[in-house]
Amino acid sequence: MSSRVPIGEILLVREALDPWVLSQAILDQPASRMRLVSLLISRALIDSDDGSLALSVQSQYPGAMERHLERRDPAVVDTISADVARRWVVLPIGRSRRRGLVVVAREPTPILGASLEHMTKMQVELAVAPALHLERLVRSLYGELEPDPSPPLPSQPLRSITDLSLDSRDVLPRPARTVSRSMLDTSPDLPARSAPSITQELDGTLEQIERAINRASAEHHAMMFASRRWHASLLVTVSEGLLLGRRGHGAKLGSVDAIILPSDAPSILQIAYTTRTATAIVPDGAVQRRLSELLGNARAPAAAPILVDGKPVAVFAVGDTSTHELKNPMVKLAALADALGSAYERLPH
Q1: Greater model confidence, 163 or 53
Q2: What is the spatial distance between Cα 251 and Cα 348, in angstroms, rounded to a whole number?
Q3: CA 335: distance to chain centroid?
Q4: Are 318 and 249 in contact (CB under 8 A)?
Q5: What structural domains does the chain harbor?
Q6: Cβ pair 245, 258 in contact under 8 A
Q7: Which one, of 259, 246, 248, lies nearest residue 287 by Cα?
Q8: CA distance linking residue 196 with residue 44, whole number of Å
Q9: For 254-287, how does the pLDDT look when each residue is reduced to its tens digit (9 = 90+)?
Q10: Cα(214)–Cα(141) distance, rounded to whole angstroms?
Q11: What is the rounded CA–CA span in Å between residue 59 and residue 4?
């Protein structure tokens, strides 16, 4: 078998991040004692799915995406013993279309697949996922992992970008693939029905946030609901007296990362932050006028704090509702903020 393509080169060819950023991460990797993809995800330099796809290319096994891990079938957890799951860092996530078992592994290999088939007496189809998320899931379901006798080796230094072929045919042995093609859809057949009510949609969103495997995924689910129910929304994090734009939607937001507001100037964000409760009180002031403009010249904005251990770490603000069907919008916003707070407490950065 030919040597594996360095994961950094795969990420570059897939245009997942900047070469300088990757080079810096490789320099920092030994001190972190993390695998490179996990380190990049932990620093929000790539998202989890980009990492899974890159690992799929490198390992030649299908990648398990966030949606596959979040929607895993709890009925198959006991098909693999806790000792095996902790030792080899593997997680069964569902049945395959051939009625076998789909198992996500930190280091998928033919020998591992054969061993799992021998133990489970089932056909096993392996997949790969970033160690950062997989280890956390295995730990939560089966207990503390066994010590890794061989911590991840530092990634190879990048070749000069001028020496690196950017022709994907030279670097990528085959395209990335996911487990979607092999996974069996175990959802029961349901009769056709009308669109879910807003309450049902919110309940589904809250459940997705609860099942999220990282903060970015939890925020994504919250923002998706907000984008369907408000004309604009803005999620800001609190850092050293400043409110920093993190995510948002709306025609007038522009670059969310460029939004920086003082936390002590009168605004609906400041009220939510200091009172630690959802609010629709709109004070007068330059910062509030700027915020209302960012939220689409909102006439009735609202904001709710996101609390971790009782302390506000972020604020979720919305503009005017985009549908008359949204009753009690403050209650819906507070529920989203509360769910995000729980996710933040459960999931590390």
Answers
A1: 53
A2: 31
A3: 20
A4: no
A5: 7-145 (no CATH), 202-346 (3.30.450.40)
A6: yes
A7: 259
A8: 33
A9: 889 899 999 999 999 999 999 999 999 999 999 9
A10: 16
A11: 7
Contact indicator for 334, 305 with CB cutoff of 8 Å: no
What band does 155 get if pLDDT is binned at 50, 70 and 90? low
Measuring CA to CA, which residue among 76, 138, 81, 133 is closest to residue 101? 76
At 153, list the tokens: 């080796």
Single-letter residue type at 166: L
Q: In what order do the strands lie in the sheet with 124-128?
A: 90-95, 101-105, 124-128
**25: CB partners within 8 A, 6+ apart:** 36, 39, 40, 43, 45
Give the whole-angstrom CA distance, residue 284 versus residue 75. 55
Which of 236, 248, 298, 246 lies closest to 272, judged by CA? Answer: 236
SS3 of the chain: CCCCCCHHHHHHHCCCCCHHHHHHHHHHHHHHCCCHHHHHHHCCCCCHHHHHHHHHHHHCCCECCHHHHHCCCHHHHHHCCHHHHHHHCEEEEEEECCCCEEEEECCCCHHHHHHHHHHHCCCEEEEECCHHHHHHHHHHHHCCCCCCCCCCCCCCCCCCCCCCCCCHHHHCCCCCCEHHHCECCCCCCCCCCCCCCHHHHHHHHHHHHHHCCCHHHHHHHHHHHHHHHECCEEEEEEECCEEEEEEEECCCCCCHHHCEEECCCCCHHHHHHHHCCCECCCCCCHHHHHHHHHCCCCCCCEEEEEEECCEEEEEEEECCECCCCCCCHHHHHHHHHHHHHHHHHHCCC
Amino acid residing at 29: Q
Q: Please state the φ and ψ torsions of residue 124, each to the nearest 5 degrees.
A: -115, 130
Find where tokens 């946030």 sit: 209
Count of CB atoms situated within 10 Å of the CB of 245:
19
Rounded-to-integer distance, Cα 329 and Cα 321, Å: 8
Query: Can you state the angle between helices 215-229 and 198-211, rounded to 10 degrees?
Result: 170
pLDDT score for 173: 54
What's the Rg (C-alpha) of the chain? 23
Q: Indicate yes or no: pTM above 0.70.
A: no
Q: So what's the pLDDT on residue 233?
A: 95
pLDDT reported for residue 285:
93
**204 φ, ψ (degrees, to nearest 5):** -65, -40
